[in-house]
Amino acid sequence: MNMQITTYLKEKLTEVGTGGFEKLADDTGVKVSFIRKFFYGNRPDPRVKTVQPLLDHFQKLDCVQNAPMAATKTKKEAA
User: Fold this and answer.
1) 36: which residues sit within 8 A by CB, 6+ positions away?
2) In terms of CB atoms within 10 Å, which of 2, 10, 23, 47 comes out highest?
3) Cα–Cα distance list, 63 to 11, 49, 74 (Å)
4) Residue 29 — φ and ψ, nearest 5°?
């Protein structure tokens, strides 16, 4: 990943939307108040320990979403 972690997370939070912050908090264990503050710029330099569960969550989703595409490419290349 060639972008800053905070930029990546803000892009992913934008995709989730503010309506999904509660579920994201439940899924990651990160307080919804932190997620909102970070999203709106009130936590410009958070601790790694705080954002790591969010980063892990989004990277896992990225891997799952990209896995079918990789499998399809492999099948096409084999043919």
Assistant:
1) 18, 21
2) 10
3) 16, 22, 16
4) 85, 5
Both tokens assigned to 15 = 């995709």
Residue with tokens 């972690």, as numbered in its chain: 5
DSSP code string of 7-61: HHHHHHHHHH-GGGHHHHHHHH---HHHHHHHHTTS-SS--HHHHHHHHHHHHHH
Reported as a single tens digit per residue, the pLDDT across 45-76 is 899 999 999 999 999 998 888 776 555 555 55
- CB contact at 8 A, 12 and 24: no
